[in-house]
Amino acid sequence: MYFPYLRGRQFDLIAIRELVEKDLIDELIVPIIEPIKLSSTLISTLKAFIEKQREVLLIQNPCVGNFAKELEAHELFECYVELLKSPYIIITHFFNENSTVEIHEIATNIDKNIEDIAIIHNEEKVGLLKQYKEIYYNVNPKYNIIPYEQSFKRRLRGQNLICLKNVFKKQKRNTDYSLKVDEFFSEEHLHYESEGLLGFSDYSVVGNDYSEGGFAPYAIALHIVYFSYDDDNDNDVLWIRHFVSDSNDDIRDPALKCSEALAKLEEWTSTIEREKIDTYAIEQLLEHFYRGSYPGLPTLKKLALMHHIQLMNVFLRGEI
Question: What is the pLDDT of residue 158?
Fold first, then answer.
């Protein structure tokens, strides 16, 4: 199973909402949402997963944004709390020094058992494992999301483990992606079961960096993952290709920059086996190129994210 970790930005939420609404993903994909604010988009995304009877993990004590501080005063609070009662919304908790109290409060307030809750462990706080084992001494959490670190694997062996790894190599500037157009991305989809894991997780093509605001870039970079056969693994590993615009001297004319990046994507798609990249998002990106339309940066990011998640679903279904 694949657990893409999303920071709850609007384009992240719309990406997974559209994927589930269009039946482009199934139960093999379980997104993890770290919400940054309570919004109508978050509500509609949760409703979409409930309606399709698909699980989604929702972090209740996020480390970014102002979600927790603004929650109870928000006009959507009551609607939000009601959605949390659904069995398809998996309450997720960053384990911390106060978790003994907090986990039981969550279970009581939402009328769920502690084994219905998913736990995320921080690699900098290995010492908290003793406290965790005192809480979960005779049951396991629904899911245990752990860092890609052997100490966690050894100490929590067999307890519904999912390894979270940051595999996207983020650059300081979009133009820097043109220095290495093709990069190895991930092979976790090949090994997680043999390593005793229930699933694998990453931050997709966004990375784990978080910032509140955006800015007009000098260059547009489109990040597209694809499968390539690897002799060492005797299977398909995941690579990522960066399509970067050329007119990058200033921030003017983002539509032209988009067209330049999409032209490179279109040329590349004619050289690769289509089943290795064939997704709804690729079709949409190519349609924008053929029509000469500029969908905006958030939509480009959304489609790159949708492509990765759908492609992983296709692989896990054995269709590649």
Answer: 78
